[in-house]
Design brief:
Shape: globular
Helix content: 25-40%
Number of domains: 2
CATH superfamily of the largest domain: Type I PLP-dependent aspartate aminotransferase-like (Major domain)
Radius of gyration: 21 Å
Low-confidence stretches: none
Order of helices and strands: EHHEHEHEEEEEEEHHHEEHEEH
Length: 356
């Protein structure tokens, strides 16, 4: 049975990226060596890394003066690398979910942190508005997409100070004006590749301004100087990222995938909004295009387990909601075809017609 993968991460990847990675694991470029055993200093891998950086810059239209890094440690390592490199006295954070909370917790180790606004009062079901960012902050940190709660910041904020964004789960899903950001980072395991590699897009002129000494592994300038190879990089995940970027370019790039993502999300949100049984959990004005969260209405709560089993019979996997929200979560990342969303919508309608 065909599987329809709605996992929140690690998540669905383009078929081509998976197949080409599998081939390279057996034999990279006819070299007789596996991707898993080549030197990261080899010409083969250097070409892969260079192509991934170039494609990233091309697809996101990254301006001059920015560097693209591929590092280890996940986005969680960036929670401390960002303040380590940028926070002198004070930083501002927008608290919109679990990952935003974890990021600001790490920042507090390095200086004062002002939480300019929070949506914790309603279990992070909306994106705060109407806040002001202190102009004396070293930077303002946002989490653009909140995977657990299904909310998303879908416009580029005009910040009076350096804007830093965790875009782990919506990078390359829509057009972004990179020039409005000083630093963008994220784990790859949503829209880019397998777990194990982290991307960082950083503007040169924001670095080197903190007073503290930086360990080499935590210093963006060292990683820039060494071309993401100060230490052995995650070779296989970077290969898969490159294959995913090639796939994205081949189908029409970010503008094309953004339209496809909106179409997928609209299809599922319409099914939720028109349902007698299901209801969305995120405020409509804050809804994510990447992670669509919904629950059963109170009178049907006892049927949630039955619905989960029913979806499995349709080949649907990965829609169980996070424990802090409950219900269901359909992650509609770039590589998920609209056909899979239609299968889920049909399953919802069929289950409702037999149980409501």
């Amino acid at each position: 049975m065909k599987k329809h993968n709605f996992n929140a991460g690690p998540s669905i990847l383009p078929k081509e990226a998976i197949e080409n990675t599998a081939k390279a694991i057996l034999n990279l470029n006819g070299s007789g060596l596996s991707l898993l055993e080549i030197s990261h200093r080899s010409k083969d891998f250097q070409a892969i890394l260079d192509e991934a950086v170039a494609l990233f810059k091309e697809l996101l239209e990254i301006p001059e003066g920015y560097q693209v890094l591929f590092l280890g440690g996940g986005a969680s390592m960036q929670f401390c690398m960002v303040p380590f490199n940028l926070l002198n006295k004070k930083a501002a954070y927008l608290e919109t979910g679990v990952w935003a909370k974890k990021a600001l917790k790490e920042a507090k180790l390095f200086g004062q942190v002002d939480v300019v606004a929070s949506s914790s009062d309603k279990n992070f079901s909306y994106i705060p508005t109407g806040y002001s960012v202190p102009t004396d902050a070293d930077y303002f940190h946002i989490t653009t997409n909140n995977t657990i709660y299904g909310t998303e910041i879908r416009t580029d904020i005009d910040s009076p100070v350096t804007l830093v964004a965790d875009m782990s789960s919506d990078i390359l899903s829509r057009k972004v004006d990179v020039s409005k950001y000083g630093l963008i980072y994220g784990g790859a395991q949503k829209n880019l590749g397998p777990a194990g590699v982290t991307f960082v897009i950083v503007r040169d002129d924001i670095l080197g301004k903190v007073e503290r000494a930086l360990p080499s592994m935590m210093d963006y300038r060292i990683h820039i100087k060494e071309g993401s190879m100060f230490n052995t990089p995650p070779v296989m995940p970077i290969f898969t990222v490159n294959e995913t970027l090639k796939w994205l370019k081949s189908i029409g790039g970010v503008e094309k995938i953004a339209a496809m993502n909106i179409e997928k999300a609209n299809l599922l949100y319409a099914a939720i909004d028109n349902s007698k049984m299901f209801v969305g959990t995120a405020a409509k004005e804050s809804r994510s295009i990447m992670n669509i969260c919904f629950v059963m209405k109170d009178e049907y709560k006892d049927k949630e387990d039955a619905f989960m089993e029913f979806t499995k019979s349709r080949g649907i996997v990965g829609i169980k909601g996070h424990r802090s929200v409950g219900g269901f979560r359909a992650s509609t990342y770039n590589a998920l075809p609209i056909e899979s969303v239609q299968v889920l919508v049909d399953a919802m309608k069929d289950f409702e017609s037999n149980n409501a």
